[in-house]
Write a structure and sequence with these properties.
mainly alpha, two-stranded parallel ribbon
Length: 392
Amino acid sequence: MKPRSFVLSLALLSLAAKMYCAATTLGAVDVGIFYSFARSIYEGGLIELYKGTQYFNHTPLVGWFLEAIYALSGAKGGDAQVFAFLLRLPAILADMASVLTLLWLREKTGRPAWWALALFAASPVAFMVSGYHGNVDSVMAMFVLMAAVACATENAIFCGLAFGLACNVKIVPLLLAPVFVFFWWKRGRLVPFGAPSALCILTGWSLPLLAIPTIFLKDVIDYGSVWGVWGIPYFLRLTGNPAFAGIQMFEPTRAQSAVMLALKLIIIPSVIVIAWRRRDVEPMQVFKTLALVWAVFFVLAPGFGAQYLVWLAPCFLVASEFWFAALTITSSIALFIFYNAISNGMPWMMGFNLLSTAKIWVRWLALPWAVLTAFLICHSCAYLRIRKNPTP
């Protein structure tokens, strides 16, 4: 069997497995939270939900998507299983689209290696997050991948559209903006990138930005995720200091908020420096720039959600097959233990038992964090030492 056919076969088998999982399980706790949001939007509208709770920290596009699948699942007490399946369907299809995008890139550039593409197509991380968890992170990762591929093929307009769509799925791609801005600015094509990107973002965010700008900026743009389960916040929690104790999902203490702010103030200028120093790299090298930015973010992340681990795979795959494999293996171990614990063991049906099982799963998240830390230590200096014509 030819390598391309083998990768496609793995991708189709993975697609079928994810579809079966999505059709026969309810998924993780996010599904229940999204169901509640969807009902509120359906009954009272998106703006009222933004105004009524600080817990809805998603983009308008996600809100309207939730409303639509709530209606399709049978509004006013709809079928929760149908809703759970429809919620996961875009992520499942996005994984397949990402494989096809990478196969196209492979035809154009010879990267990434076939064995790494096969691992990506059959990734346990993608199966657990897209097929079981229930969120939109895989869709965002697909659009970021497409934006990076557009850089590699020097298509500024498509890069802007893909980046704008990524920002309409989740806010976090804004962190990557300096990479794309400086890349296209150096090539004299900032306007072809920036115009469609800005138009797409502002159009998608226009309703809450015009109606409730303060609430939207505070609850969505400034969202810090879950404290105490990953990286520096996790290790601070292990010190036993009461100020850093507990796993906080929405209301961190004053000390925790201060640490989260400090980490953000380190991450943002670090990203800008990386993007500026690497603005003149060869087009394919943009994947290494993005991998380095993701590594900085995840090593210093002020908060964390298990599903975030799918963000990394596409960029790391093209940047370095070795580090992609290490990250996939460690993430697969950590996520299996996480989902198995919150789902009360096999077979998985619904994973809502989050906080009470934290002692079982939280320590295992240190595995992928350690890989990312090692990657950052090994490659930050080399990636920032740019020559006029760097080699791949």
